[in-house]
């Protein structure tokens, strides 16, 4: 759950993922993704009126985030005031003047965050420094070293501040299995169940509206089937090239159902979707709930440290699958130790009983952690620079007018 106030120390008049209170005095707004804890105030009348009051005040986001946002009828009045920023490019954004400051421009680069469809990080670069806001993110170890936005022509960029997702910046989540590892272990569980008979079906219970699409897509690809979701979701997914074609709104065309939030008692013989799907048939239902909180909570109560489990079965018939939408302690440490910012600030208070000061100190300790990928990058750049200098010297020495007589 985001605890970010919405503003950067470096750039006043910019508000990110918070659209109420004093942030309504800002003149440029950014939305990292479509989860409710990052959309506080977004649907409010005061925010809409603020956008309407100035001709050059906008809400900036990725293309996919705009699609998801406008699927919500309450958000459609915002469409006129939304601007899409291209991912991977330095977008020059105007921050209009207010009563307390002058107009200025800042370069904003959107970096895929891997949290849910459309989710991005924002890298701000301008006269007042370089700041990275991660929003919620889910990266594997080593991923930061592949991001071109962090690199300048001959070195890594010097970043003043990183505002980082610290949802799982706790010892119990030191080594959450990567998303790809969890999915690779989930696929055979689903496949084996479906292979038992045509009456064996799978119900995937998803607490959040978005964020499980990677799992759905992999299941559809590997098992050569579509996943059943509500009509409105199919309409949305069909607008996103990476997800189009993997979903159906017809419950009879799939034995994998992710069609409703779980609000009823678990059933091993009925489906949560429309009665037409039952067709007077007795089903054998495998209920799966992908999450991470439950696994880390179990780890907290355990005396051992290290790896989080991947699967667990509840006696009532609920199969829990570890599936994270946030980076683990180790993955957060990898990002911070690679970037080496001047300061690093948490944007989420972990669900544990820890206070802000403890989380802040933990993040600071990551700055002294050795990062192999960073060292490798610096060594490569240094070597290339030396070789480049030698080539110039050699080339210069071969010029005819500089040859000495022998």
UniProtKB/TrEMBL annotation:
User: Can you say where in the cell this protein is located?
Assistant: Nucleus
Instruction: State the Pfam families in the record.
Output: DRMBL (PF07522)
GO MF terms held by the record = 5'-3' DNA exonuclease activity; damaged DNA binding; endonuclease activity
User: Is Transport found in the keyword set?
Assistant: no
Q: Which GO terms describe its biological process?
A: DNA recombination; double-strand break repair via nonhomologous end joining; interstrand cross-link repair; telomere maintenance
Is Zinc one of the keywords?
Answer: no
Xref: Gene3D superfamilies: 3.40.50.12650, Ribonuclease Z/Hydroxyacylglutathione hydrolase-like (3.60.15.10)
Gene Ontology cellular-component terms listed? nucleus
Q: Which family does it belong to?
A: Belongs to the DNA repair metallo-beta-lactamase (DRMBL) family.
Q: What is this protein called?
A: Protein artemis
Source species: Biomphalaria glabrata (Bloodfluke planorb)
User: The organism's lineage?
Assistant: Eukaryota, Metazoa, Spiralia, Lophotrochozoa, Mollusca
